[in-house]
Specification:
Number of strands: 13
Largest sheet: 7 strands, antiparallel
Distance between the termini: 37 Å
Low-confidence stretches: none
Bound molecules: adenosine monophosphate, magnesium ion
Number of helices: 18
Structural class: alpha+beta
Shape: globular
Strand content: 5-15%
Radius of gyration: 23 Å
Helix content: 40-55%
């Protein structure tokens, strides 16, 4: 286990050279303190947990002192935001410190978000709010707990300074870990400024670091694009399966590793509604739940355009034509899992379609529905029946469903257990998250942040001893979102 001063750093992005970033140190902050530190994330970078207790932990991760061995840089990137190209993005308020290799050889980028303006700041303050930092911190833990690739966070560090948004707010820094910080927008940046050799360099970097198996293939760039396409399709299928809405699927928020990246106005589905987006500023619903798969394709098209000097355009088109098939395959597998079905044919696909139509019509809570379904066909729980305005609609659905279960003739205990392993009991409902943020901001009480972190690291199981230790009442957290807070929407800057 490493101490803070002895991380196993590598700096392969830095080695790409100054065209790709601005080298810069974090700006100091006043009076930093720990809001919450995450033992699971520490383990990822091989950090000894005792290091949380040292005053240097806060010094280093507030940016007041540079971690020995770190080589901080702000990455240059651009990207399509809400369908429009923005040539000037880049890390305006965050710095990549380098990658830390853990004991099993996996390297995690360590990134400080909120550590002062860089040359990409475009007049903004370079800081992050406490509320946005807590959102990203818990969002990552919740998505990880669901078994979906995502950035994690080592800690949220509060600062004794206000940052000014619509109102003055407490500021913070987030220590983010990611397998990659290379975005679709990193490629776009060099493509649209006519620097194809830099696009090639970036592609080679990504292959070397993330996909070394294809490095020696003659068509390695085509394989890179195909791999990213598969990973993106799989990621979005996973989001759909748990009702996760990213909220801002701009191309600068999509990584080359297919990881959930950049948590802003994200949310989890309450009552099933494909048109819902938690992003208040997305008036046209470009990034609504039901459009995420299509947007994934759109974003991949933009990535493909940057690679035309490396891959023939018709090959890119052919690869992109596979996207829907690949997505559908992942999606049906995941939906089959949620329904406890193994034969995945057109009948199952048909059931899924009808099911969603009914969930929508009856405004059924997405998460609770699947969790309660695990008791069927042994029984049809009353609390499942009660979710439908007209139980006859549910019965018709269950008749079809029963036939599909019976043709597989499963062991019902085994089936239930498997379903409960993929249908979460707890999700990060925005009202729970907002309550934790409120307590943090108004009472300087961070215990609810900790409680949610603990709860969501295993959202499938009741853990009575742990719940008791942290004062977690499972029924409270597993409950349906109150009417007053259903479909909560958030602004990008919030
Ligand atoms: P995001 O919405 O976090 O994806 O950010 C979009 C762009 O705005 C990125 O280039 C960020 O670095 C930049 N940005 C957002 N907030 C700030 C801020 N407070 N200071 C400087 N740059 C920012
Ligand atoms: Mg972003």
């Amino acid at each position: 286990m490493a101490t803070l001063e002895h991380f196993n750093w590598t700096h392969s992005f830095f080695e790409l050279g100054p065209d790709f970033f601005q080298a810069k140190s974090p700006d100091p902050v006043a009076a930093p303190y720990i809001i919450d530190a995450n033992p699971e994330a520490a383990t990822l970078i091989g950090l000894d947990l005792a290091e949380f207790e040292r005053p240097e932990f806060v010094e280093y991760f507030s940016g007041n002192r540079l971690l020995p061995g770190a080589q901080p840089l702000a990455m240059d990137y651009s990207g399509h935001q809400f369908g429009l190209y923005n040539p000037r993005l880049g890390d305006g308020r965050g710095l990549l410190l380098g990658a830390v290799q853990n004991g099993s050889g996996h390297a995690w980028d360590v990134y400080l978000k909120g550590c002062g303006p860089t040359r990409f700041a475009r007049g903004f303050d370079g800081r992050a709010t406490l509320r946005a930092s807590i959102r990203e911190y818990l969002g990552g833990e919740a998505v990880h707990g669901l078994g979906i690739p995502t950035t994690r966070s080592l800690a949220v560090i509060g600062i004794g300074e206000l940052v000014f948004r619509e109102t003055p707010q407490p500021g913070a820094l987030l220590v983010r870990l990611s397998d990659s910080h290379v975005r679709f927008g990193s490629f776009e940046n060099f493509h649209y400024t006519n620097r194809p050799e830099a696009v090639t360099q970036l592609a080679d970097f990504v292959i070397q670091r993330h996909y070394p198996d294809i490095a020696n293939e003659a068509n390695k760039y085509q394989l890179l694009f195909r791999t990213v396409m598969h990973k993106t399709a799989r990621l979005i299928a996973q989001w759909q399966s748990v009702g996760f809405i990213h909220g801002v699927m701009n191309t600068d928020n999509m990584t080359l590793t297919g990881t959930t990246f950049d948590y802003g106005p994200f949310g989890f589905m309450d009552r099933f509604n494909p048109d819902f987006t938690p992003n208040q500023t997305d008036g046209h619903g470009r990034y609504a739940f039901g459009r995420q798969a299509e947007i994934g394709h759109w974003n991949l098209t933009k990535l493909g355009e940057t690679l035309t000097h490396l891959i023939a355009p018709e090959i890119i088109t052919e690869e992109l034509e596979q996207y829907q098939t690949v997505f559908n395959r992942y999606y049906l597998e995941l939906m089959g899992g949620k329904l406890g079905l193994e034969i995945l044919d057109s009948e199952v696909a048909g059931l899924v379609g009808t099911l969603f139509q009914k969930l929508y019509e009856h405004q059924v809570d997405y998460t609770l529905f699947f969790r309660r379904l695990a008791d069927f066909p042994r029984e049809t729980p009353a609390n499942l029946r009660a979710m439908f305005n007209d139980p006859a609609d549910l019965d018709a659905l269950l008749d079809l469903y029963r036939k599909l279960i019976e043709r597989e003739d499963p062991d019902l205990d085994d089936r239930k257990e498997k379903m409960n392993r993929v249908n979460p009991r707890f999700i990060l409902r925005n009202y729970l998250l907002e309550r934790a943020i409120d307590q943090a901001m108004k009472q300087s009480d961070y215990s609810e942040v900790e409680r949610l972190r603990i709860l969501l690291q295993d959202p499938y199981n009741d853990r009575p001893e742990i719940f008791k230790r942290y004062g977690i009442d499972p029924e409270l957290y597993a409950a349906e979102t109150p009417d007053s807070h259903v479909e909560m929407r958030l602004s990008c800057s919030a």
